[in-house]
Amino acid sequence: MEKGSMDKSNGLRVILFPLPLQGCINPMIQLAKILHSRGFSITVIHTRFNAPKASNHPLFTFLQIEDGLSETETRTHDVTLLLTLLNRGSESPFRDCLTKLLQSADSETGEEKQRICCLIDDSGWILTQPIAQSLNLPRLVLTNYNVSFFRNHFVLPQLRREMYRHLQDSEKDDLVQEFLPLRKKDVLQIIDKETEVLDSYLDMMLETTKASSGLILMSCEELDQDSLSQAREDFQVPIFTIGPSHCYFPGSSSSLFTVDETCIPWLDKQEDKSVIYVSFGSIVTISESEFMEIAWGLRNCDQPFLWVVRVGSAVHGTEWMDAIPKKFIDWLHEKGKIVNWAPQQDVLKHRAVGGFLTHNGWNSTVESVFEGVPMICLPFVWDQLLNARFVSDVWMVGLHLEGRIQRNVIEEAIRRLFSETEGKAIRERMEILKENVGRSVKPKGSAYRSLQHLIDYITSF
Ligand code: UDP
């Protein structure tokens, strides 16, 4: 990023409205930092649920709106339900807030006057497009999916209904031609039940994206060139692939959890590329038996480990964790470290980390590629299944557990990833991918140029 441009205002204000999930807040705040460094003033409208920490970003204006969620609803693990409720509960408060912002910008005079040039919000907000349109405000959609998943996932309910009702065991590993490189069993895992709510939600998302003024993706040509050309035809709106956004302003200042910084001095004591980092992001929960299988797999392998277990939310019914004998936890700690939440980007960058056992959320996947850390893929839901296929089958920079959460399978995968034969080949491919993606965000790189086009485009509104 250009230094020295931080304080220069270009007289334009951008309104951002992140979806209140960790994986969506991070890229939106990164985008806010990028735009601010290019002279834009930033207003972030956010829900009460999972409100970002305004004090971490004193240069932005934060406005909180009501979201209508009850205390019980904030604890649901059903993301579709959560998004539906949020869209319903936030509609009217969002409309009021945006209307007031536009009115007060209109009434400003003199040197302080700023023009609100656009709204940028998450593809998961299906309420915003009609509101922005009625107020004559251009809306850009930010999606935190890989390009291929975003363009194809609208057909998932149909795929499931038409093709997989009577799927034979022998067909489960077959590729899905309409959604490469997914396999048929992945589709079943992505949508494991009929849900009308999801179908209509996806229809609305498609419609509102096509009606928008453009689409921003945290990806780059080097990761998925083919899907990008197809997406341009599908949506017929300008598409900007600005790369792994965290590379411009490293650090996780938008974390909703308290970060345990003791990871870093612990990593400092480990040998180069020896540690397996384990994290399943901010939403995935595992069962008690899965926790125990992972714990045994990590304890039995030859590598030290750093494992993120979100207290109170990573494991179903977390009371049982208190019942784990202290001796077992101490025994685990002889080989590794367990933390509630890690400074992930710093961890992946650390010289001691040699592998990442991940759920393959898009942020985690891209962060790992950017730092050149090979992965072991354990996807649980939704786009994670496709991201994992890209890692293991397309880029070939990781191994896939195929859903087997068993101690011997995990131990074996870690051995293979760190081995001098198979592991070495994976590390070499990862090094090449890392270089290509790294080049893309440097001046003249594809993502860097796309970011410049985005800035010019916003300025032109
Ligand atoms: N993250 C983090 N510390 C952790 C685990 C995750 O800072 O201990 C960050 C990670 O760097 C990423 C985000 O949380 O930016 C998780 O996003 P992702 O898309 O990978 O998964 P999600 O949480 O949406 O499932």
Automatic annotation (TrEMBL):
InterPro entries: UDP_glucos_trans. The keyword Transferase applies. The keyword Lipid metabolism does not apply. SUPFAM superfamilies: UDP-Glycosyltransferase/glycogen phosphorylase. One of its GO terms (molecular function) is quercetin 3-O-glucosyltransferase activity. Keywords: Glycosyltransferase, Transferase. PANTHER family: GLUCOSYL/GLUCURONOSYL TRANSFERASES, UDP-GLYCOSYLTRANSFERASE 76C3-RELATED. Belongs to the UDP-glycosyltransferase family. This is UDP-glucuronosyl/UDP-glucosyltransferase. It comes from Arabidopsis suecica. The lineage of its organism: Eukaryota, Viridiplantae, Streptophyta, Embryophyta, Tracheophyta.
